[in-house]
Design goal:
Blueprint lengths: L10 E3 L7 H8 L3 H12 L4 H13 L7 H13 L3 H13 L7 H12 L4 H13 L7 H13 L3 H13 L7 H13 L3 H13 L7 H13 L9 E3 L4
Parallel strand pairs: 1-2
Helix pairs in contact: 1-2, 2-3, 3-4, 4-5, 5-6, 6-7, 7-8, 8-9, 9-10, 10-11, 11-12
Length: 240
């Protein structure tokens, strides 16, 4: 299966009355050094969102010198308080050996905790671990279930991955109709690789009536789009 190696480090706007809000305002105004200074004060007071933001800033090198070890330290602080996004990001650190010693089993545990909170990126990441057999026994059935949970919440990369699996019969029974359905859902969100694969399906007449005009239109659309991977996404998400 074509591997989609993407890490979505999610920047969160968490709606509540936390002490971090002034720091968020500074961050959004691109006053990064002031934001980092503020978060450092509130993080020591145990504010998990300040710990998360500070970890994120060390991760991307905004307002502070990029430092993955410090980033991991603050993600860990927030993760210990049950914040799913911090658990997700720290899980990727352990999976990749970034800022911490590589440890697939720790990555699995962190992804599981965030996935239990119905966080799509962690459901997807955990599914990928089951596909590759890293830290767990390879299990395509579990992977598909996790991808489906993420896809149901509109997570485009999971929709694309399921489309790819059904197109090629990898881990599932080959089903072009299902492949088309998942590619279409991801394509509607502007996921370029899904648009391209959908174009190939129309060109070959797999799962749909062969339509070169439609295929050409989709290829043209894909070439105009920017790829979604590696872009930071601003999302509103509440931990449960």
């Amino acid at each position: 299966m074509k591997k989609v190696l993407m890490i979505f480090m999610i920047l969160i706007v968490f709606v509540s009355g936390g002490n971090y809000e002034k720091g968020v305002k500074l961050f959004n105004n691109e006053e990064y050094k002031k934001a980092a200074s503020f978060f450092q004060k509130t993080a020591t007071q145990g504010d998990f969102m300040s710990q998360f933001y500070l970890g994120y800033m060390y991760d991307i090198g905004k307002g502070v010198e990029q430092d993955y070890e410090k980033s991991a330290f603050y993600y860990q602080k927030a993760a210990e308080q049950g914040y799913g996004v911090a658990q997700n990001n720290l899980g990727h650190y352990y999976s990749n050996g970034q800022g911490v010693k590589q440890d697939y089993k720790k990555a699995i545990l962190l992804f599981e905790k965030a996935a239990e909170q119905e966080f799509p990126p962690s459901q997807y990441a955990l599914g990928q671990m089951y596909v590759s057999g890293r830290g767990v026994e390879q299990d395509f059935t579990k992977a598909v279930l996790l991808f489906e949970k993420a896809a149901e919440q509109g997570y485009a990369v999971a929709q694309y991955t399921l489309g790819n699996m059904y197109e090629n019969g990898e881990g599932v029974r080959q089903d072009y109709t299902k492949a088309i359905s998942f590619y279409e859902k991801a394509a509607e969100q502007g996921f370029t690789m899904a648009v391209k694969n959908l174009a190939f399906m129309y060109a070959a007449g797999r799962g749909v009536e062969q339509d070169y005009t439609k295929a050409k239109s989709l290829f043209k659309k894909a070439n105009k789009q920017e790829d979604m991977p590696h872009k930071y996404k601003l999302r509103v998400w509440s931990a449960k």
